[in-house]
Amino acid sequence: MAVIAICISSCKGTQEAINISDAEREVFQQVEGDTIAISSDKTEYEIIIIEPGFNTWLQSVARPEGYYSQIFFENRNQVWVNSWNQRVLQPQQFDAQLYEMQIDYRPGIDYGYEVNYKLYNYFVYFQRKYQQRLGNFTPRL
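Above: the chain's sequence. Below: its structure in token form.
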């Protein structure tokens, strides 16, 4: 008589915890308005982010421009935008105050380095501050 054992494991795998420094926590505590416009001289695209602490975080915590390539940003941004937009459409499951409106970010359009850099860093900031996960990879600095 043969015995067959079937093991079922989660497809999620282990999710790495996000380590946040004390300095980064201080930036997250900022409550004053902090508006940043993301645009490119080469394109006609612009994103306006109104998020307390983001500009300070971008200047003090985020990796400097040039650290990652535009292709890296585009790949991550596409995944994160798709996840973000899905969450906007599910306000019963995801906090509607966090996911207020969809982001119109289309593959194949060259938004330029600066737009991609700042959008990527906003997603990193957002995920770290609000302990959200928009993809299968840990938002890293």
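The longest strand covers residues 35-39.
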